[in-house]
Amino acid sequence: MKSLILLILGLLSFSIFAHSPIPNVILAIHGGTADTEEIPKNLEPEVIDGLFESLKAGYAVLKTKGSSLDAVEAAVKSLEDNPLFNAGKGAVFTSQGKNEMDASIMEGSTKKAGAVASVTQIKNPISAARAVMEKTRHVLLVGDGADQFAKAQGLKIVSPKYFYTDRRWKEWQKSKAKQNRSSQNSSPTAWNRHFSLGTVGSVALDIKNGLAAATSTGGLTDKMHGRVGDSPIIGAGTFADNETAAISCTGVGEYFIRYGIAREISSLIKYKQLNVVQAADTLIQNTLKPQNVEGGTIVLDPKGYLAFSYNAEGLPRGYVTQDGTAHLFVFDKEVVRLLK
Ligand code: GLY
Question: What angle do CA 291, 292, 298 make, to 5 degrees?
Fold first, then answer.
């Protein structure tokens, strides 16, 4: 009887802690939803190190009173340069055996945003998204136009071969073998768990209480040539508003676009006064999970309260609190490292 009561109390306290916003957060990142097949035990330390490097890059900006916009760009660039994550260097392959990447960035104080989609030669798509935001009248540039724009802006251009990795190539071969290709392109749910979803993202809060969000991805393995997911769509995969939250999402992009997930989370905070955990869970657990759609999000409000919500086995992720402590996770186990 006693052990039963202890068990119930334990579960209760776990669920309370699991569903409380995390306070005093200035920076958070995610590396996309994942399972133990994608990230086996022996890969976990490398993923933790990759997440830590990203937090270090973002924290270096915030520590020197830099902007949240600079911080999220730095954090995402680090993940894009790491072949472990499905963005930039580690982008997955399309059905044509190529890499097409999407990214977006948004500033909460000005509500300015920029994005690129289906780019193939930009080393860091997140920096191209930022350039669209700051150097054009537009929000979203795609394909060749985006690649050319990035080149004209002096951003680093690489050969499409740069994005080749054995791991992603093998993953694509495996996915092709598993899938019935004719049904795959008309059924987004068929992507669940047969295809990598490891989009990356970051949210940050700066010394001026300004929020920013950034998201970058190679999309879904074996996606159609020209397919664009939620990551470059403001209001779907990315959103930032100083009145509500900075939000970055990961998951099956088609659903995040159709449900306007990031914007909806912001609206729940704004109009229903939900906290970050309630708002994130409403979309990820109550809306997507019952439909068997895998996804996750990180949500940071202007007071520094953070929520992670995901309905997959894991969401590799990390956050930094004001005192410079980094908290890192691949699955449930927490790793704590000091950044100072
Ligand atoms: N969430 C990434 C994608 O669907 O492309």
Answer: 95
Q: Which residue has tokens 């340069």? A: 81
The Cα–Cα gap between 102 and 87 comes to 8
Task: Extract the residue ranges of the chain whose pLDDT is less than 70.
Answer: 1-18, 180-197
d(CA 76, CA 249): 13
Atom from ligand 1 closest to the CA of residue 249: 1
Q: Is 253 close to ligand 1, i.e. is its CB under 6 Å away?
A: yes
Asked if 336 and 280 touch (Cβ cutoff 8 Å), the reply is: no
Q: Tell me which residues are annotated as active site.
A: 199
CA of 16 to the centre of ligand 1 (A): 30
Domain count, the chain: 1
In this prediction the pTM is 0.92
CA distance 242 to 330: 29
For residue 40, report the distance from its CA to the centre of ligand 1, in Å: 22
Average pLDDT, the chain: 91
The answer to whether position 126 is within a domain reads yes
The residue contributing the CA closest to ligand 1 atom 4 is 253
* Residue 283 domain flag: yes
Structure confidence at residue 13 (pLDDT) = 41
We report the CATH number of the domain holding residue 143 as 3.60.20.30
Confidence (pLDDT) at 37: 85
pLDDT tens by residue, 210-266:
999 999 999 999 899 999 999 999 999 999 999 999 999 999 999 999 999 999 999
Is 217 near ligand 1, meaning CB less than 6 Å away? Answer: yes
pLDDT of residue 186: 53
Q: Which domain holds residue 85?
A: 25-183+192-338
